[in-house]
Amino acid sequence: MTKINTPEPGTCKCGCGEQVKRDYRPGHDARHVSQLTRAVREGAIEKRVALRLLPTESLREKLTRTLATKVA
Q1: Which residues have CB under 8 Å from 25's CB, separation 6+?
Q2: Which range of residues forms the domain containing residue 47?
Q3: Which residue has the higher pLDDT, 72 or 69?
Q4: Which of 18, 29, 48, 70 has its CA 20 to 30 A from that of 63?
């Protein structure tokens, strides 16, 4: 019989505490980028630290693009 490897449940990386089989609940990757954007802009964390907290290159690029936009 073939064993199917299923990911072990973990906790959503956005900090909501929900159990997930991947990195995030649907839509929570964008939430995480928004949280980190706010934290960097408020001076709570440095950009380099925020970038290390994101698990994929595409999310790191999204954070970089978001930080480059001006806030009204």
Answers
A1: 12, 14, 16, 18
A2: 10-68
A3: 69
A4: 18
Query: What is the pTM for the complete model shown?
Result: 0.84
| 50 inside domain | yes
Q: Has residue 49 been placed in a domain?
A: yes
Q: Is 3 contained in some domain?
A: no
Looking at the predicted structure, is the pLDDT value of residue 6 above 90? no
N residues, the chain: 72
Task: Check: CB of residue 54 under 8 Å from CB of residue 32.
Answer: yes
Instruction: Write the CA distances from 45 to 21, 64, 66, integer angstroms.
Output: 28, 14, 15
pLDDT computed for residue 32 by the predictor: 98
Which residue type sits at 27?
A: G
Domain count, the chain: 1
Is the residue at 1 inside a domain?
no
Residue 5 has pLDDT above 70, yes or no: no
